[in-house]
Amino acid sequence: MRRTVALLAAAAAALLLLLSCAYEIQPAECGIVLFFGEPARIVREPGLHWKLPPPIETLVRIDLRLHILDPSEAEYLTLDKKNVLVDAFAAWQVEDPLRYLVTVVDRRTAEAQLEDIVRSELGSALGTRELTALISTVPGDVHMDQIMQGITERAREKAADGYGILVRTVGLKRLNFPEENRQAIFRRMEAERERIARQYRSEGEEQAEMVRAQADLEQARILAEAERRAQEIRGEADAEAARIYAEAYAEDQDFYEFLRTLAAYEKFIDQDATIVLPSDSRLLRLLRQPHLGETP
Amino acid sequence: MSGPRADGAAPAAPRSSRARRAAALRRLLSGPRLAGLFALLVALHWGLTGVRVVREDEQAVVLRFGAITRLAPAGILFTLPWPIERSLALRTAEVRTMPIGYRIADAARGPGPSTREIEWVTGDNNIIDLTLTLKYVISDPVAYLYAVGPVEADFLVRRCAEAGLTEMIACLPVDELLTAGKGRVQEETRRRTQADLDSLGAGIRIVTVNIGGVVPPANVIAAFNDVSTAKIEKARMINEADGYAKDSLPRARAMGHRAVQEAESYREATVNRARGEVSGFNDLLAEARRARAVTEMRIYLEAMERILPRARKVIVDESAGGQLRLLE
Q1: Residue A112 in contact with residue A162, Cβ under 8 Å?
Q2: Are A245 and B277 inside 8 Å of each other by CB?
Q3: At the fourth CATH level, which superfamily is domain B96-215?
Q4: Where found in the cell (chain B) (predicted)?
Q5: Cα separation, A62 vs A200, whole angstroms
Q6: How many CB atoms lie within 10 A of CB B42?
């Protein structure tokens, strides 16, 4: 019985020892085996691996996946002395596990170092550019991608040399203006909108006036045209009437003169006219000497 | 009265069967048999660690001692038991949502997005509030799990989209964003974000990008609205003028038409009067041709009858030596 227990205990101890010698390496992870605290070898192949039991050999795991560093936004000064709030981020991963282990140990330290690098690169890159290189509607003015590319490259160099970190990309996730500038910008935006609104209104007036004037002109033209046509017709009518009269009266001019003269008398002789009639005129002679029964 | 009798008769049989069952149990749980049963249960349980159900919307990654051996589709998945093989299931069919410019939790709970999150700077130095919703799926489970890491991969989608948007909006004038630019921004955001994610090997595919809203910030929105009002007013003014033109031209045409008509009727009247007068003249002339002297005399006397009554008349007697004598 005692023997059995001893055997079992020995078997358990052997199993524990065996387990402390085995380790798994996951994908996107690497293991650094430390021999009495000194890095001995790097294991990158995922799967089951063996080492000597602790404390002879110990294992440190390093995550090789991409990490995102998200420092808080900060104010930067551009070349033309404009303040901008820049919120950047960086995607990074461990490139040289050994150097990473020796220099920064863990992710928090690494990110603190990287944040310093990114901030200083942002500051120096933005300080040599005018604001229009970041914000402009003029095509070809904005070189944001180029600036970020430059920052990425310089940060990559520093981080690789110093900490065994590969900076994959530094991006600009937000741009804004500091609070005091924002108020000025809002005021300017308002002024701009007011100007645009005024412009719309005066354009409306202008165009409406043009349409009205055009309509008035057209109206005058139509009326003048009609007036001219009417005058033509009246003229034609008068000419036609004159022709009709002339044709008819030419038949017997004396008779026309006779009739027309009588008609004229009727018009111009009124109660103010005094007519002197000789008593022996043909009209009145019968008053004095009626030749009854003698008419021819 | 019947109870005690039943009590007394019943107990004998159950007591013996209960004793038999207890004895069998004692035999089973004693010695090597118990150890064997225990070992069987443990082995069964261990074996079952290698069986799992991969649901309809999932895909599973199978790892043997940490190394990826295969991808498994939906269904029952058999693997070697733990710790030799392990499996991780990922909901690859699920369409995930990433809000940009706001947070889903905030949108659900009520508080509006913070100005820092919703504001973007446009190319003409304006500030605009824009929210956008990204929908994406995991296109490559292995990359999603191991290139970036599940939590940070989702975060990366947001960062890449924000970087793309910031750069794009910084080149656009505010008016374009508020009017025609939305579709372009959506498409361009999708393209840029996808390109960034691909270059980082995130294993994510953007499905849709939808702009939730683009509005001017609250403290200047009145001025922006006034521009819209002014635009409408402009259209209204031009419309009214058009209405005036459309009304006044037919009126002018009607007036012109009427003037011409009046002239036409003048022509009718004038010519007809001439014809009438001429026809009267011709009638008289025809009469006069038959008896000239009589006709002329008659016409003359009729005219005198009409003329003389209204004028003052002085009759001079020639035979009396030209002395005037008033008739009246």
Answers
A1: no
A2: yes
A3: Band 7 domain (3.30.479.30)
A4: Membrane
A5: 64
A6: 10
- In chain B, residues with a C-beta closer than 8 Å to the C-beta of A230 are 259-260, 262-263
pTM over 0.80: no
Complex prediction ipTM: 0.73
How far is C-alpha B31 from the geometric centre of its chain's CA atoms? 79
pLDDT in tens, B269-297: 999 999 998 998 889 888 888 888 888 88
B326 in A contact zone (CB under 8 Å): no
* pLDDT score, position B328: 43
With beta carbons less than 8 A apart as the criterion, state whether A175 and A85 touch.
Answer: yes
Write the CA distances from A17 to A13, A37, A43, B66, B83, integer angstroms.
Answer: 6, 19, 21, 20, 17
Closest residue in chain A to residue B175, using alpha carbons only:
A193
Residues of B in contact with A245 (CB under 8 A): 274, 277-278
Among B66, B285, B300, whose Cβ lies nearest the Cβ of A46?
B66
C-alpha A276, offset from chain centre: 102
Q: What is the DSSP letter of B117?
A: H
Put simply, the answer to whether B220 touches A188 (Cβ < 8 Å) is: no
- Identify the bridge partners of residue A63 per DSSP, sorted by sequence position: A29
Give me Rg for the CA atoms of chain A: 59
B54 close to A (CB below 8 A): no
CB-based contact, A50 to chain B, within 8 Å: no
User: What is the 3-class SS of chain A, one letter each residue?
Assistant: CHHHHHHHHHHHHHHHHHHHHEEEECCCEEEEEEECCEEEEEECCCEEEECCCCCCEEEEEEECCCEEECCCCEEEECCCCCEEEEEEEEEEEECCHHHHHHHCCCHHHHHHHHHHHHHHHHHHHHHCCCHHHCCCCCCCCCCHHHHHHHHHHHHHHHHHHHHCEEEEEEEEEEEECCHHHHHHHHHHHHHHHHHHHHHHHHHHHHHHHHHHHHHHHHHHHHHHHHHHHHHHHHHHHHHHHHHHHHHHHCCCHHHHHHHHHHHHHHHHCCCCCEEEEECCCCCCHHHHCCCCCCCC
Q: Confirm if B102 and B132 have CB atoms less than 8 A apart.
A: no
Nearest beta carbon to residue B285 from set A26, A168, A251: A251
Q: Which two tokens stand for residue A50?
A: 């063996």
